[in-house]
């Protein structure tokens, strides 16, 4: 007979099509150009060293390559303290102190030379000069970068502390992340610092080292975490190839499961349905036995109303009325499931047939299983660009210096310049004033709009990430639609359907994908903003605001889920018809609403099969990894590596297996959804005549009792 072709009024995926949503395409290009410009500006002004290296009180980096300033003294507080708060200092030192020592004791002993290395740069105050000693030569000028008058060679300890040139005391410390933190250790249950249980606080008082424990608690956690990370890294170095073997096994198992669904989908679904019915039946029987067993026992006939609420729930299990209620509920559920099976039997068979057809489609387009790697790579690029831009924006502030003083001063808190501070009017009006680093900031137009640029960075990340996901979905949908609308499968399937669909998506429908991803990005940014506001309002005691915020969060969460569902089906219609986003979304929505029961049944059946598949793959590979890495398989007992923590490779294999299975099943789910929408379109557009033949498989035609008239070979 005459070979069948598409209905002339039907625009399938292999037909010529025009560009859609051009305005959104142009808007996306402009936004990307702006995003690149923001990145260039951020990379020009930003300095990631501010994240890695600590700074002293003058905003100068410590621990940079080629400099002797490797660590920060533990006595000098935290970075970035606002000028209106009590100010502590930070000092760059060559090494961390290894002993308890006070400034007073250093002045009266020979330890001043050791103590001097933990003072500010330029401090050169020797021991007290004894009577008759020659007068040392005074310095000609102060260091202009020190922001303070030249220190006298004969300052007393009180003057040194008042000028904040040295700490009052030193504590034995250990380096951590280029910072010196108290070296807290426990010996026989006793907390010690530098083998001491008490220390001199520099004010003539003895204190217990446990007072330092709170300040070093987080540091110890970090130290323990670093040791744990090193052991985990060692485990990865000796087990990485076995982990790769486990992931390959998971990939092969996922592929095998998808292939077997062509033959076992119906069996698995019906076996599970029968098991659910049998479990409910056993529950009814067990409730009846418990109800009959309690007959005649004292207190078992008390009603639930008379008993009231009890915190011990086991009390209710001794009442006959409880088991009677359980039995009635299970009977109702059993009857409902049986009735649903009776009325939805045909729709369940259609869902099973579509799942089998999806397995055949993937078998003919095997490259679709590798396509998620492309999507993953593009998502990694988006994440890397967003993260690097965010870091450069966050570190593009400049060092801001403020006037600090202990007495009243009209210039207190004002911005100052360290280079010219000693010659300014501030030192004349306020002799004790100092120009110290306050925080990182700036007063230029660029610095004022840093928050807006960070917001734009987050928004563009969501937009581009959603665009990449949309591109992957419409590409897969186009490839699987090419399979469905091939009248003679697989002969009529176009060559390289996946690459053809990818090219069509980029050439004609970039604007539509940008439109759908833009809508979703706006909703996601609103959700992020609500989460930020919720975090800020946690300390507030405004219950009305918290309630309204909770309602908004719930509403936008639901809206995001709905938009994702609508976008997914809109992209399928775009791949099939080549229409714009709004038309595709509208057509997909009303098409699904006209077949809502079929949608619900197919969704639940596929969800069950995907859950079962992930459970089988992850569970089997995880159990195999557990027995192997714990050396419980005698055949390969000597082959298994020796590990610090056997759970490290096991968890890695389990998580990796889940991600692999999820990647395979995401392709399979897109295939099922595409074939389902094509199937619904096929039913509505065609009648089996010579002019409008069905494109569904013979199995679906037989199930629906439909056939192409006059074409027995169809």
UniProtKB/TrEMBL annotation:
Pfam families: Choline_transpo. It catalyses: ethanolamine(out) + n H(+)(in) = ethanolamine(in) + n H(+)(out); choline(out) + n H(+)(in) = choline(in) + n H(+)(out). InterPro entries: Choline_transptr-like. Its main location: membrane. GO terms for molecular function: antiporter activity. It is found in: Cell membrane; Mitochondrion outer membrane. The chain crosses the membrane at residues 21-43, 240-260, 267-285, 323-344, 365-387, 458-485, 570-593, 605-629, 645-665. Keywords: Antiport, Cell membrane, Glycoprotein, Membrane, Mitochondrion, Mitochondrion outer membrane, Phosphoprotein, Transmembrane, Transmembrane helix, Transport. One of its GO terms (cellular component) is mitochondrial outer membrane. It is a multi-pass membrane protein. PANTHER family: CHOLINE TRANSPORTER-LIKE (SLC FAMILY 44), CHOLINE TRANSPORTER-LIKE PROTEIN 2. Choline transporter. Belongs to the CTL (choline transporter-like) family. This is Choline transporter-like protein. It comes from Nothoprocta pentlandii. The gene is Slc44a2.
């Amino acid at each position: 007979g005459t070979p069948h072709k598409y209905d002339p009024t039907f625009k399938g995926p292999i037909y010529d099509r025009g560009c859609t949503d051009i305005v959104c395409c142009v808007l996306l290009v402009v936004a990307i150009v702006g995003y690149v410009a923001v990145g260039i500006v951020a990379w020009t002004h930003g300095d990631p060293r501010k994240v890695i290296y600590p700074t002293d009180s003058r905003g100068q980096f410590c621990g940079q390559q080629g400099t002797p300033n490797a660590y920060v003294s533990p006595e000098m507080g935290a970075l970035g303290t606002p000028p209106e708060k009590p100010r502590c200092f930070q000092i760059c030192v060559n090494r961390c102190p290894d002993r308890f020592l006070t400034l007073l004791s250093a002045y009266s002993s020979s330890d001043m030379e050791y103590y001097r290395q933990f003072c500010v740069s330029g401090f050169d105050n020797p021991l007290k000069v004894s009577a008759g000693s020659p007068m040392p030569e005074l310095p000609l000028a102060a260091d202009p970068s020190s922001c303070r008058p030249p220190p006298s060679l004969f300052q007393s300890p009180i003057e040194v502390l008042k000028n904040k040139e040295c700490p009052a005391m030193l504590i034995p410390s250990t380096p951590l992340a280029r910072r010196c933190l108290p070296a807290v250790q426990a010996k026989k249950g006793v907390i010690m610092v530098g083998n001491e249980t008490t220390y001199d606080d520099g004010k003539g008082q003895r204190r217990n080292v446990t007072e330092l424990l709170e300040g070093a608690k987080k540091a110890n956690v970090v130290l323990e975490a670093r040791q744990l990370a090193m052991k985990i890294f060692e485990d990865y170095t000796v087990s990485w190839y076995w982990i790769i073997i486990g992931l390959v096994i998971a990939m092969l198992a996922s592929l095998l499961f998808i292939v077997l669904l062509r033959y076992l989908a119906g069996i698995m679904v019906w076996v599970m349905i029968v098991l659910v019915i049998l479990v409910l039946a056993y529950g009814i029987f067990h409730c009846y036995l418990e109800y009959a067993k309690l007959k005649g026992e004292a207190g078992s006939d008390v009603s639930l109303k008379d008993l009231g609420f009890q915190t011990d729930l086991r009390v209710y299990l001794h009442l006959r009325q409880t088991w009677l209620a359980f039995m009635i509920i299970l009977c109702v559920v059993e009857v409902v499931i049986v009735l649903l099976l009776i009325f939805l039997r045909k729709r369940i068979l259609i869902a099973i047939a579509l799942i089998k057809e999806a397995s055949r489609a993937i078998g003919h387009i095997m490259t679709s299983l590798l396509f998620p790697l492309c999507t993953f790579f593009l998502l990694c690029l988006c994440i890397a660009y967003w993260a690097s831009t965010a870091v450069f924006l966050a570190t593009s502030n400049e060092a801001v210096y403020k006037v600090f003083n202990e007495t009243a001063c009209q210039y207190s808190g004002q911005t100052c310049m360290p280079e010219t501070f000693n010659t300014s009017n501030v030192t004349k009006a306020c002799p004790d004033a100092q120009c110290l680093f306050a925080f990182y900031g700036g007063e230029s137009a660029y610095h004022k709009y840093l928050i807006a640029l960070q917001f734009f960075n987050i928004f563009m990340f969501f937009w581009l990430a959603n665009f990449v996901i949309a591109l992957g979905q419409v590409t897969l949908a186009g490839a699987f639609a090419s399979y469905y609308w091939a009248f003679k499968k697989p002969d009529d399937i176009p060559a390289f359907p996946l690459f053809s669909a990818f090219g069509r998506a980029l050439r004609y429908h970039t604007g539509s994908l940008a439109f759908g991803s833009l809508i979703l990005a706006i909703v996601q940014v609103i959700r992020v903003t609500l989460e930020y506001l919720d975090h800020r309002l946690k300390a507030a005691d405004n219950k009305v605001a918290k309630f309204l915020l909770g309602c908004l969060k719930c509403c936008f969460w639901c809206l995001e889920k709905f938009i994702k569902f609508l976008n997914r089906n809109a992209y399928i219609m775009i791949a099939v018809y080549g229409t714009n986003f709004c038309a595709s979304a509208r057509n997909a929505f009303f098409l699904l609403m006209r077949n809502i029961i079929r949608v619900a049944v197919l969704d639940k059946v596929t969800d069950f099969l995907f859950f079962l598949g992930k459970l089988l793959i992850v569970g089997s590979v995880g159990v195999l990894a557990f027995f192997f890495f714990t050396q419980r398989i005698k055949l390969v007992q000597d082959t298994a590596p020796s590990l610090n923590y056997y759970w490290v490779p096991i968890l890695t294999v389990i998580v990796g297996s889940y991600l692999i299975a999820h990647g395979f099943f995401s392709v399979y789910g897109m295939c099922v959804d595409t074939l389902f929408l094509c199937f619904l379109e096929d039913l509505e557009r065609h009648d089996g005549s010579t002019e409008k033949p069905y494109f569904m498989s013979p199995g679906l035609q037989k199930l629906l009792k439909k056939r192409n008239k006059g074409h027995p070979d169809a």
